[in-house]
Amino acid sequence: xxxxxxxxxxxxxxxxxxxxxxxxxxxxxxxxxxxxxxxxxxxxxxxxxxxxxxxxxxxxxxxxxxxxxxxxxxxxxxxxxxxxxxxxxxxxxxxxxxxxxxxxxxxxxxxxxxxxxxxxxxxxxxxxxxxxxxxxxxxxxxxxxxxxxxxxxxxxxxxxxxxxxxxxxxxxxxxxxxxxxxxxxxxxxxxxxxxxxxxxxxxxxxxxx
Length: 209
Description:
- The structure is a single chain.
- The chain is α/β, with parallel strands linked by helices and 209 residues long.
- It has a domain of 135 residues: P-loop containing nucleotide triphosphate hydrolases (Rossmann fold).
- A hairpin with a 2-residue loop joins strand 1 and strand 2.
- Helix 3 crosses helix 5.
- The longest helix has 16 residues.
- It is globular, with a radius of gyration of 17 Å.
- The protein starts with 9 loop residues before the first strand and ends with a strand.
């Protein structure tokens, strides 16, 4: 694993969020350092997705704050440091696997080398399907486009919502390999998951406890 910072790279302090009159969670605090990932666990409806969205700046918490390298997690610097992948794959049916990947990267301001794109798709198991429209791909194959995206990203912070959804055993191992390499580079990750993932998380946040 990469060397850890002396201070947490990502820190949440006293986060609280509600949906209407229902409190999803309150007083959630955690820290994740370079070379670590943190698992967010809990039953459906306990606020796992909302917590990730709060960290990513997509949902405003009712209370608390998120810090990135000791400063408020906001602005262009933080957005460039973050890869957020929601529960849905975010794939366009009319675009091919390769075109979807290029669009996902372009939205992040990444102009990837064509050879690197093809290699990432091949590593994700999509080499023979890269020109197929996404509507002809299975749910797991659509998810593998996201794996190819992670292979080409260099942002230090990943916030991932159920990344193993619809993936078979081969896809699961591919994701775990990507995560391990990300951590070895000194990256860090916040992952909402119902499943066990290797390498093991540095710590866990239990929602709905």
